[in-house]
Design brief:
Length: 124
């Protein structure tokens, strides 16, 4: 759902500072989409935990070589000349990334400046 008056400013705040963005869970639908698209690069960064009784938890993102959780989103790239950031997997990114922010209050609570009345976080 498109949020009214929301415009991503490409500041990277969500992907650089919100742990859920790069050390969270991905959905069964995400995995199915990536399998259909033959995205082994994405699937390599996901670990599935069997919680029993048919419950699976898919956690992302992990370094495919070490299995360690990453310290920032591996799919975020800096734009030239300090123009911000962009998602290199925009068309196929996880559902929880697509749904961020859920609403204006969520944006304000997490520091997202995508609404015109919420100031941009300082650049690091």
């Amino acid at each position: 759902m498109r949020l009214v008056n929301f415009n991503c400013r490409r500041c990277g705040h969500c992907c650089l500072t919100l742990v859920d963005a790069y050390q969270g869970c991905v959905s069964d639908a995400d995995l199915e989409r990536w399998q259909r698209e033959n995205r082994s690069d994405l699937l390599a960064g996901v670990q599935t935990l069997d919680l029993g009784r048919g419950n699976l938890l898919h956690t992302a993102w992990h370094d495919p070589e070490t299995g360690e959780e990453v310290e920032r989103c591996p799919w975020l790239a800096e734009l030239p000349e300090g123009a911000g950031y962009h998602c290199t997997i925009e068309a196929i990114k996880p559902d929880h990334c697509r749904d961020y922010p859920e609403h204006r209050g969520h944006a304000a609570m997490t520091g997202c400046p995508g609404f015109t009345d919420i100031p941009s976080p300082p650049r690091s």
